[in-house]
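A quick aside before the break. I want you to see a complete sequence-to-structure record at least once, exactly as it would be stored in a machine-readable document. Don't worry about memorizing anything.
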Amino acid sequence: MGILISLLVGLLAGFVAGKIVQGHGMGMIANLVVGLLGGLIGGLLFDYLGWQINGVLGVLLTSTVGAILLLLIVSFLASLIGVKKR
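That is the input. The structure line, written in tokens, reads:
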């Protein structure tokens, strides 16, 4: 059951991050990947800063912050190498 909840939180976090950074969602698979990677990035960042957030909403916040950072970094790197958005 924990894996299912992690997937759902990752999907939601990726969707929210896509809406914030790009103005639209990216599709279910991309949202899931971004959300799950965002959870890892957010968890490492919050750990580094010494912040501890508990509960499903805390995990959603952590994942969303990490996913936003991931999308901003990818967007920045894409602009450096000249990749154009659709």
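Two observations worth writing down. The chain has a mean pLDDT of 85. The chain has three helices and no strands. We'll return to this after the break.
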